[in-house]
Amino acid sequence: MKILYLTNSRLPGEKAHVIQILKTCAAMSDKVDIKIVHARRTNRPWLNAIEDMKTYYNLTREISIEAIFSLDLFRFVPAIPFGKLFAYKLVFYIQTITYHISLLTVIFREKVDVYYTRDSLTAMLLVIVGKHRAAIVLYEAHYFPSSVIGVLIAKLLSNYLNGISVLTNTLSDRYIKLGFEPRRVAVIPDAVDLEDFDICSKQKARDILEIESSVFLIMYVGHMYRWKGVDTLIEAATLMSEDVDVWLIGGTPEELPRIEMLVDKLDARNVHIQGYVPYYKVATYMSAADVLVVPNSGRYDISKYYTSPIKLFEYMASKRPIVAADLPSLREVVVDQETALLFNPDDPHSLAKAIRLLQVDSKLSKELVENAFLISRKYTWNNRATNILEFVHKIKVI
User: Fold this and answer.
1) Quick one: DSSP state of residue 269?
2) For 81, how many CA atoms within 13 A lie in the half-sphere containing its CB?
3) Could you tell me the end-to-end alpha-carbon distance of the chain, in angstroms, rounded to an integer?
4) What pTM was estimated for this model as a whole?
5) Which domains occur in the chain, in start order?
6) Residues 209-243 pLDDT 10s
């Protein structure tokens, strides 16, 4: 079986979806012939320096990757003296259109069995063009559209897609209500490579990172979007004792100024912003932590219902106790008092209370770690690849 994975993403990239794409395709490459086709786009300087994505992302196998032309003008927008919002929209449309024109040449050039994408516009192009080439079109949805146009596109796709995979049961229910046949919808969460994590003891990790042994270290790893709930963690930090430090790992240059301003505003002196860390170093940071936090906000649907955070599975594999927001999306993976401590979303007092409990109750921490690690074994990229391919074989005969 030959599969083309099509994405309008920057590769390499600093966002979680890049990890998901590469890890999923690497796991599938052991079972099928798969190639990633992505847009050639302007990248961040430190990402341009990456010469070997296999090593950088700890990929278990080599993947065939092809970059195709797109007219990417985003780097010129900051120099425009006015009308930046309009300019960003314009260059977005230009880049998207030119990428999809280039994609047409790939579709007509290569004979494949399956087209696989997480981009709704690409999925729409594929059902128009790709299906005429007798190939299956599989769309992986990571959200439910909020705009009228987005809903109309999804409704159109429901009539022509061979299958749609989603990350959560709530997302599955919403697409089925929109018109997708239940047998053409599969819930396939994100995953983790267990061997990437649990790589060293807490003390060894702290020696590497030069962190004092006496500090009780709370850590968040990921982006700083508002729906990620980092604001709540920063507020909670001001309620903690002096021996507690909070480290924030991740974020882009665009995200960090807002977080830095909030830390200054709240005078949260125990919060340390580390910024972006290369993927291959993330496990060492997680190993240094006493508690890992998923503080997602309950005010956004993507956080409340749709997300399947890769970091949650990485936390579980790191063998560190987890505190997570009590949200439907996260409850599909963790259980309160069994695999994590859940707190009331957007409530810094509730979050601080959960962290304090783990600080004093080592028995509970140990139980949470052991249970979470056992559960993490079923959420591997290899298992995810198997589930995707089983779904492909299922929809082939529908």
Assistant:
1) T
2) 0
3) 18
4) 0.94
5) 2-191+380-396 (3.40.50.2000), 194-376 (3.40.50.2000)
6) 999 999 999 999 999 999 999 999 999 999 999 89
